[in-house]
């Protein structure tokens, strides 16, 4: 299973996508060089999580291993609000 299929399987909620499957043409990226736009309400929570997961999957596919703290730390250098820490 490739990276694209893994990311598409992250969500099982069909309500996230239109019924007519028009999203497929927007998400199909055969040459893997076109930019992908990711956005959520504040630009950090859900989009940040998606970017970290995408990066982790890319590292696993390329290197076979990954350091989650290192990837999160790298993203937090540029955007401190990414992947908020909830303290109880």
From TrEMBL:
<dbReference type="InterPro" id="IPR000242">
    <property type="entry name" value="PTP_cat"/>
</dbReference>
<dbReference type="GO" id="GO:0004725">
    <property type="term" value="F:protein tyrosine phosphatase activity"/>
</dbReference>
<dbReference type="Pfam" id="PF00102">
    <property type="entry name" value="Y_phosphatase"/>
</dbReference>
<protein>
    <recommendedName>
        <fullName>Tyrosine specific protein phosphatases domain-containing protein</fullName>
    </recommendedName>
</protein>
<dbReference type="InterPro" id="IPR029021">
    <property type="entry name" value="Prot-tyrosine_phosphatase-like"/>
</dbReference>
<feature type="compositionally biased region" description="Polar residues">
    <location>
        <begin position="1"/>
        <end position="14"/>
    </location>
</feature>
<feature type="region of interest" description="Disordered">
    <location>
        <begin position="1"/>
        <end position="25"/>
    </location>
</feature>
<dbReference type="InterPro" id="IPR000387">
    <property type="entry name" value="Tyr_Pase_dom"/>
</dbReference>
<feature type="domain" description="Tyrosine specific protein phosphatases">
    <location>
        <begin position="14"/>
        <end position="83"/>
    </location>
</feature>
